[in-house]
Amino acid sequence: MFMTQRISIRSQAIGWIIVAVSLASTPLWAEESGAGRAYLAQMPYESPPPPESRGVEATPPPEILTTQDQERLEALIPLLEGKQELWAIGEFNYFGKHSIPYLVKALKMPVPRIRFNAVETLSMLNDPSAVPGLLEVAMNADEEARIRSHALRVATRLDPNQVIPAIEVMVKDPNSTIRNTAVFESRKVPRKEVLPLIISVISDPEQYVSITARDSFWILTRFSGPIHDWEVSTPEDRKEWEKEWWAWWEENKEQIGVVPQSTKPPRPPTDLSIS
User: Considering the domain boundaries, does residue 90 fall inside one?
Assistant: First the structure.
C-alpha cells in the first residue's frame, strides 16, 4: 500500500513538471515560428470637430450707470468682507471706472477687511483717479498700519507724482513700519523733491529703516556715501553720517532734474571695506 502511494505521488509530480515545461516552452516556439509577435503602430489621428460656437461673449460694462446699477454698487460695499468678497471684487471690476467712487467710500467703512479689499480692488482697476482717496488713507494716523502701507504702495504704482505729500507725512510717523514703507516707496518716485525726505530718514532710530533710506537714495542718485558699518551702527552714528548726505544734496541739488530710476540694488555692506 505504502509503495503504491509513493508511486502515485511521483507520477503526479512528473505530470505537473511536464505541464510546466510545456507552458514555458510555448512562447519560445511561437517566437521561433513568427506567430504572436507584437508590433508598435501609429494609429491615424483625427482632429476633434470644431466647436459649434465660441461661447457667450462677456457683457461689456455700461457706459452710464442706471439707478439700478448705482444701487447695486452701493450694495456691494459691505460684501467686500465675508464669504462673497471675491465675487464682490469681481463685480466692482466689471463696472470698471464707475466703481471708483464707491470703492473710495468703502475706504471709510468701519470694517478693516472692507477697507483693505477696497484698496486691493482699486489696484486692479488701475485708474490714477483713485490716488487722492488712497493717499487720504495712507496719511490717516488712526488707520491700521497694513492698510496704510498697502494704500501707499497702490497709489505709488498708479501715479508716483502724486504721492510726495503722503511720503512727507509718513516718514515722520511714530510707527517704524510706516516710515519704512514710505522711504521704500520713495525709490519709485523719480522727483528731486523726494530726495530731502529720504535723507531725513538716514538717521532713523530703527536700523532697518535707515538702511532702506540709504538704499532708496542710492537707487535714485547712485550716491551711497562713504563706507560705514550700517549693521552695527547706533542712532548716534547715523545722525553723524546723515550730514554726508546733506552735504551731497547741497552740492548737487541745482544740477538734479528728474532723477533716473534704477532697479539695481546697492552693494550690501558685507561686500564693502568697513572703516
Answer: no
- Residue 7 CB partners (closer than 8 Å, separation 6+): none
What residue ranges in 160-223 does DSSP mark as E strands? none
Tens of pLDDT along the chain (275 residues)?
544 555 566 666 666 666 565 655 554 444 455 556 777 777 787 888 887 766 667 778 888 888 999 999 999 999 999 999 999 999 999 999 999 999 999 999 999 999 999 999 999 999 999 999 999 999 999 999 999 999 999 999 999 999 999 999 999 999 999 999 999 999 999 899 999 999 999 999 999 999 999 999 999 999 988 889 988 999 999 999 999 999 999 999 888 765 544 444 444 443 433 32
- Cell of residue 27, nine digits: 512562447
The answer as to whether 168 is a domain residue is yes
Contact yes or no for 207/233 (Cβ under 8 A):
yes
| Residue 261: domain span | 163-275
Short-list 221, 225, 199, CA closest to 212:
199
C-alpha cell at position 180: 519704512
Cell of 204: 532713523
C-alpha cell at 243: 550730514
Residue 25 covered by a domain: no
Number of domains in the chain: 1
